[in-house]
Amino acid sequence: MNFNWSRRSSDDVPTLYKVTGRATRNGQPVNDLRIHFVPEAGRESTAMLDADGRFRLQFGWERDGALPGNHRVWCERPPKTPQEDIDMQSGTFDMPV
Fold first, then answer.
1. Among residues 32, 40, 28, which one has the least CA distance to residue 71?
2. Taking a C-beta distance cutoff of 8 angstroms, is the pair 36, 84 a contact?
3. Which of its termini does the chain have fewer beta carbons within 10 Å around, N or C?
4. Helix (H), strand (E) at residue 29
5. Is 42 left (phi over 0), alpha (psi -120 to 50) or beta?
């Protein structure tokens, strides 16, 4: 994955850094995943990958970016239908690779 960082700040809110990137697997874009950036302290930032694997992290609903520092990064595939949600929770969902 590639990440680009640029600083955003304001006096009354935490300093955030704009984070954008693109996720690929074997040279092909990865899509329909949610990416999580979890800092060592503070609230995580998340984004959905688009059809081209691109994302822009959001810190809540109204602000883009992530807190400064080291982050644990992980991805998940949200269910696309109510039945997929049921199957995922029961452990019977078989996701094609």
1. 40
2. no
3. C
4. strand 28-29
5. left
In one letter, which amino acid is 59?
F
Q: Which of these, 5, 12, 2, 19, lies nearest to 59 by C-alpha position?
A: 19
**What does pTM read for this prediction?**
0.72
Query: What integer is the mean pLDDT of 63-75?
Result: 94
Torsion of CA 82, 87, 54, 35, to 10 degrees: 110
Compute the distance between CA of residue 68 and CA of residue 39 in angstroms, rounded to an integer.
8
Query: What is the widest separation between alpha-carbon atoms in the chain?
Result: 49
d(CA 69, CA 12): 19
63 and 17 in contact (C-beta within 8 Å)? no
CA distance 54 to 47: 9
Whether the Cβ atoms of residue 45 and residue 19 lie closer than 8 Å to each other: yes
Torsional sign, CA 77, 78, 81, 85? positive
